[in-house]
Amino acid sequence: MNFKLVIQFLLLLSFYHGGFTNELYLSCGDHGFDDIACMFSVNTTYQITHTTVYFWHEGITNDDISIIVPHYSFDDEIFAPNIPSFLCDTFKNLKYIRFYQGVKAINVNTFKNCHNIEYIHIGRNELRELPKNAFVNQQNLKTLYINNNSISILHSNSFGLLSNLRTIDFSSNNIDAIDERIFDNTGTREIHANNNPCVDSRAYCYGKLY
């Protein structure tokens, strides 16, 4: 047996699938977008500790990246829970970020450093709760998708002071209670709330939650 070839194969396997490291792999270029985008892949349930970025074109830096989307072969069974916050720390000028099939929880630090973000899509995941002040620093956020999760309650300060928020979609969740003050400090114009218990049953959804 050629052990050298075996070792090379294993190293290549870990390179593509992250099998031996807690590393996030990003391939960055135009990817068909107007702006510079990164497609990520990861194969670990553990906390990401570092990232490897591969730029398709010379001259691109982390500050040029404005879009983050999953790679087409993304494994929906394995997802490191700190990927969003890790990316926000790495790419300071993100405007568009999407994660699906694997996000189990977010906290107040998940999007803390995404100050320029305008579009967040975390629909079709496994979220059960939306923490208070989860989006407190996202003053430029215009569109938020949290649809197709398992969220049951929306608190008054779930969205902070999102004066630029125009569209929110929390359809297809398990929401049976919505704080009546939830949109007081937002600029929301378009709300998608269908396929939730308190909406579909025409129950009294709104009240003050503490």
UniProtKB/TrEMBL annotation:
Range of residues in the leader sequence: 1-21
Top-rank taxon, per record: Eukaryota
Pfam families found in the cross-reference section: LRR_5
InterPro entries xref list: Leu-rich_rpt_typical-subtyp, LRR_5, LRR_dom_sf, SLRP
This protein's UniProt keywords: Leucine-rich repeat, Repeat, Signal
Keyword Flavoprotein: no
Identification of the protein by name: Uncharacterized protein
